[in-house]
Predict the structure.
Amino acid sequence: MKMIFVANEHLATSLQDALAGYFDRPGTDAVDFCHPDHTAGTRKLAKILSDALAEDPAETFVILVDAFGSTAYNETRLLLARTGLTGRAVVVPGMNLPLAIKYYGLKDAVSLGYLHELQDETMERDAG
């Protein structure tokens, strides 16, 4: 399962760098949506998804985003819908280092369905 960090400004790259302090060559990608050209982030994310699928047509994705409703979150959701990949990705808002470590440890050990269930439980708990 491919892990991608997506955020506004430079948070995604910073989190990717921080994760590298805990894991040897973690093999993640980072996409930063920077003002004024957020479309560059969309293009970079599209290329990462496309390249991953070219390498493995059955690839699935865990995508950690900065915040629900942010430009990064919305552009990620729209791109997944346009490319038909919504069902092959779990999008997790509220990224931080402990969350990145947790999902990084789970991404190759559990199913995408399990990650969806985990995300749903987290969203319900945080909403209530």
